[in-house]
Amino acid sequence: MTQLRPTDLKRLHRTWRRRKSGRLALMLEGLQGPYNVGSIVRTGAGFALDDLYVVEGTISPTNPKAQKTAMGTERYLDIHYAATVSDAIASAKAAGYAVLGLELTDDALPAHEADLTRDVCLVLGNENRGITASTLAACDGVVYIPQLGNVGSFNVAVAASIACYEVRRQGFGHGFEPTSEASSDDGDTPDDQE
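Above: the chain's sequence. Below: its structure in token form.
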């Protein structure tokens, strides 16, 4: 077993990019930790995030500490700044996203049970207080990540990573038709598969 070389790694990423369906966006409401914001930016770039909505009162991805953590990956994202969360939600909905809060509430669905194959914008709230009540009320739904341990919640950047993976996982294969490059990886050609 050997690590993939850069060319092989690019091929692997390209194959997975072809398999994704639906658009994915994140909305940040009131995040105060620049390292959290930077980590979310880098995660977003890794999961081919389509849009990042940053609500006023959130540390900007251009903050030097956020940029250090993001390691330059903010250049891969389409970042939208909004004066209010209402403006951000309106923009996301106008762009065709279903806006879902990522929060622990009494009526939230486990993320793996929610339909995340459509265009989804996940709202992430403040590290201590979470998503505000008015924002939760404006969301189309709420999802959460089931936990097994004795910890009350995940760090917001970790939760963003897990949730982004779940959205992409559900989308893998929806509408995917292998290209000749992807299907020939096993050595078979389309004629050999009959």
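The chain has one domain: 20-193.
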